[in-house]
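Internal QA ticket QA-208
Title: Verify multi-chain structure generation after dependency bump
Assignee: T.L.

Test input:
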Amino acid sequence: MIGRSILGALVNLTKPGMYVHWGFIQISVANLIVIGLMALTFILAIAIPFHRKGGRS
Amino acid sequence: MTTLEHDTSSSPEEDAEVSKQWTTRIRRRLVEMLPPERLIPDRQPSFLSSWIYIFGALTIGALAIIILTGMVLSLEGPGWWHTSSLGLFVNSMHLWSVELFFFCMVIHLWGKFFMAAWRGSRQLTWITGAVTFLVSVGAAFTGYVSQTNFDSQWIATQAKDGINSTGVGAFFNVLNFGQMLMWHIVLLPVGVLFLTGLHILMVRRRGIVPPFEDGVNDKSATVASGTQEGTPS
Amino acid sequence: MTKTKERRFNPDRDVNPWKGGYRPYDIAKEIVICFVVMLVLVVGLAIVFGSPDDKAVTIQTWSNANQVDFAQTAITELDGTSATAQYGPPYNNVADVSQKIGPFSPEALVGVHIPVNTAQDFVIGPLETVTNSPVLTMALNQFNAASPSQQANWESAYATAVQKAKVFHNVLVVPLARYGPVGIMIRQLTDMARSGALDTSMINQDHFYGTDYTKSLLYVADGTYFSDQGTALHLSGGQWGMMNETGNFPGQAWLWLYSFWYQIPPFTTAWEPNADILVSVLMMILSVLLILVPFVPGVRSIPRWSRVYRLIWRDHYKGRE
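Actual output:
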């Protein structure tokens, strides 16, 4: 009612949800993105070099 | 009752008594377990060289925001965010900090798993971490059923079957809003914070786990158990 | 103090104390930066996406949206065939409905702790609070004075007739049949529901202040109006609904494993009648396994076999070569 325009969302996610079906697997696009980002973040956290002051050459 | 009128110089009997006190013993034990330089170290072993190490601290950061936004929501009560735009915004922060909390915690868990971070008497660190994860799932769940909207109605009526089937539903009634709110804002946050604190103290006590020593150890070697690691004093 | 105990070195359990170097590391700074990063992300996500807040379904909105569904649900509460009436513990005593794991049924063992009598609590009790309708009072007196078999006959006649009910000019019309006072009772209850009086009556059955919505929620969940809404939002159990959220928001994705079991045989087939208890027990076992990973042979060796650690500590290993 009130407020969505003031401090509410810029992107309206309160629309019918998008879902991916694959056999018995049914997952919302939002959850899929979150899980995908988790896997990606994990891989990047290991792959990206960690430089710090006084570190070995 | 000589203690009431003693001067600043203590007698040998007093010293003996003080050193036997429960208070003194507890303090001595705590300092032994966690000397300040181990509790708040200024150095870390040289093998700490990966971004994967920051996900514990990121999880703590998200937890701090969860607690702070939860406190702001508490100021005006559970119905506030339905009618106030500021309330809705704080609720949005509360929701997204929870999403980020689990996001970082799970990556932290994966990282610690692949480091086998329980090695070297660090099993309890893993255990407290895993229990914190499970208690957090409960804390989040009670939050979802305390929203007082369609989502909470739906989640409560669906979840009741699983919980009732175990017999727990008779005492932990997910359809009872008052009970769920209390669990969400008192009991489970206290549990999560206590376990997180314990987990951090254990990490500090043992220090971070050293790498596998590829090719150095063979099965015939023996190990000194009970050794502790930390920063050098 | 180091207590030395002779024990074979197990690389998945033991380490030798770190003898290598230490380097400056500012933990306090790390924590502050992590907090700030999280704060920026949270504020950003909150501004961009907000949070969902779909309005709760009340008995009033339900009965106004679908009078027929409400009346059809109300008669099942009265004749004891609704999901809640047939639920068993912890709400009521119904033979042979409790889920079992082997011969053991925890819910039956615990018994009724949150008593719900649907006929009394959902229909007759609320109607008895209406004192200004002589027709209703007569109908209730007639119903209460009748024998159980007479009541059952009326109820079953109404249950059949209400299947063909229609709404004419916003009024519920149930085909005439030999349902005696039940027609007036459900008609009055529907009016009560549409006015919002039934919501108030359900919550305030015992108290002025309401914090317990057990009966209202069970009532609403017995109707198809509520479950249709949930299914349309992909929230049902068979749709992995446990981890989903309304709209396009991410949900409790961390419940994926709990939700997973409900999608596959034998939980969807042979074990379906006891799926809740079986999935719950399975998840308890898996949770204990997660906690005990450091002690589970095989599982605790995966990190060493996977060699992911060679990447995590690659600077360390590079330095040693």
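Spot checks passed. Residues 224-233 of chain B have pLDDT under 50 and may be disordered.
Status: verified.
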